[in-house]
Specification:
The chain is of the alpha+beta class. Helix content is 22%, strand content 34%. It has two helices and twelve strands, in the order H-E-E-E-E-E-E-E-E-E-E-E-E-H.
């Protein structure tokens, strides 16, 4: 009787171990840095970062931004990041300004590392004096399956970033210097009575 009871306890212990939930796999973190500085008429590099690129073979993201401040024209504005410098397969849908989807993939999975997985070259229109655009990165999940990292096989959490457009120091100084000259001439005319 003791052997049966010991066997029953052992069997229950084995069943409990086999039925226990698997330890939770922590999500990979994907983000765009905050407060990336850009200037009117220039291209600003905005990276999509990852904390762990182990086994990464593909990504599919939706990126949104203010199209009055930033512009992405096409795949020529995309380049590989620091963790996948040899990747050459990038594509995207750029038809809606301010709301694009970008994809990248390679035949071989990455061995690891943290850093950028995609660098986006945003064009800042020359007419923009200053402003801030949030840049969101979302996991573009295909309703038929896939999307995100490795077609959804890698759990992922994303965080948004921002680009801050600031005036060029030289143009700001020219503006201040020009204002001082105009103010000086106006005061001089007022004090001499000339118009």
């Amino acid at each position: 009787m003791k052997a049966i009871r010991d066997g029953s306890v052992l069997a229950l212990a084995v069943i409990a171990v086999l039925c226990a939930p698997a330890p939770a796999q922590s999500d990979r973190q994907v983000w765009i840095p905050l407060n990336i500085e850009g200037h009117a008429g220039q291209v600003v590099s905005v990276p999509i970062m990852i904390d762990d690129a182990t086994d990464l073979q593909s990504f599919n993201f939706r990126v949104t931004y203010n199209p009055a401040l930033l512009q992405l024209f096409g795949v020529e504005d995309l380049s590989p990041g620091s963790v996948n410098p040899l990747w050459t397969n990038f594509d995207g849908n750029f038809t809606t300004p301010g709301d694009v989807s970008v994809v990248g993939f390679d035949a071989s999975p990455l061995s690891g590392g943290s850093g950028s997985i995609l660098d986006m070259g945003f064009h800042v229109p020359a007419s923009v004096v200053s402003g801030t655009s949030s840049v969101t990165v979302g996991l573009l999940i295909d309703p038929l399956g896939g999307g995100g990292l490795n077609e959804g096989a890698i759990p992922t959490t994303s965080r948004d970033g921002s680009v801050v457009i600031v005036p060029e120091p030289s143009s700001f100084l020219s503006l201040v210097a020009g204002s001082l000259v105009v103010t000086f001439l106006a005061l001089r005319r007022r004090s001499t009575g000339r118009r």
